[in-house]
Amino acid sequence: MTTLAAQEGKSAAASNLATRGDLSDFLGRACRDCGADSYMLVTVLHDQDKSDVRIISSNWIYDTIQAIGQGLIAVIAQSAYTTSAGLRPRSIRTDQASAGPTILSSEQAFLLHRNGHSELYCMRLNVVRSHAFLLVSSKLPERIDLQALWRLQLQCSYALAQIPHLLAGAAHQDPLSDRERECLLWVSEGKTTDEVAVILGVSSNTVNSYITHAIQKFAASNRAMAIATAIRNGII
Amino acid sequence: MVATASQTRPGSDYRTTGAIPPPPKIQPAVSMNDAARRCRIIAADINAAECAVFLIGPSVERGRLVPCFDAEYPSIAATTKLLSIRSGEIIVKHALVSPAPFWWSSNTASASAAGFRQLAWAVETEPCLPGTSGLAFPVQAEHGQFGIVLFMGSSIIIDEPSLCDVHARSFALFGAVARLRSSEHRAAPSISKRELECLRLTANGHTSDDIARLLGLSVHTANQYLSNATQKLNAVNRMHAVAKALRLSLIE
User: Fold this and answer.
1) Where are the domains of chain A?
2) The listed CATH number (3.30.450.80, 1.20.120.1200, 3.40.190.10, 3.10.20.440) that belongs to domain A17-171
3) pTM of the model
């Protein structure tokens, strides 16, 4: 009896997220718990030269995003300031003009600071084969509890896994079928088409067609590029 | 027994005293032995009797669970082998669906099971080994290497905040393990700047002709750079060389 009650209590407490709204509620609450004011959850899709930022959930003032431009979000997400789970989050300060090396121009820093983002953290969320980035910021510096922050990083990745369709766009990073992925993996290990054919027990023509499909799906120009794209996206 | 040991070690008693431990960092584990020691420390902190680290093999169709090390390092405990053979599929299936920790317990009356049931974020799964209780953390290293850090024992003590802390420490541990493994494989290739440049361009889909034009070389020289790089990386062909260079972070 007691266990039943406990179970009901726990589902109300945190974990059962089904919609984008649930996720926003969760993020808003979790943000306050770690002393932060704002959050932004994004995915970044790479095309050859440009990065496309898609916002999953955010409580930033829309004008701020307009003013700094989505490109800057991608720059922050791909910078060395972004930390994976298990690493100490790195703070980006916008309130100090010369606080060491920074990826922001003084103008961008000023804009962020004026709009209530004095201290900013960016964390990478690994959700199996796709990933997202969580930006957490506070109006005043040194308000964010780092321990709560890395807990939030993990909980947020658990939460995203419960609502996989929110990452549907990011899943396009792994558009391959199992067979195509397997072929690319073996080719990246230095196997020739004939060798892959023997390993997988199919004909060489089939192997070539799997690889051609993979190349097309990545819009790559040849095998080497398809392999590089797959490795860069953590697919193989 | 174990509980007393863990309480006497400084820095491990934050759960009971409320003191905040230093944030986890990827400390470069100097050896697998060191990594195994760090794993045992995490196990002691949650009062687990056994711990193990697994890699999820890259064969994508049916990911295999490959034991990396456990508390009995340098040998491998029988339970670890059993786990990878008997329950590899269950564990891998979980890890490839969600990053959330998962647990099992064959003995619903055990102290572990009571604690696990309170965890909102952890998912219950079928028993991985009969007669055991355990908690598994899916982890990931750079360049998409997947793994599992797993703890077993009938009196594991864990709550919601420490679940995330242990997961973060598992990530850090696995990052160090993955780095150790890749440095073991690295034969310190002294690849020249030009050779790397050619590899990078190849990875971006350029042919030897393109590379020659872009770098102002003859096609012959570009090919020569690439075959030198292939040789230095101990690769069998160009594709293999590009893949190795990316996985070793020699090129981005």
Assistant:
1) 17-171, 174-232
2) 3.30.450.80
3) 0.74
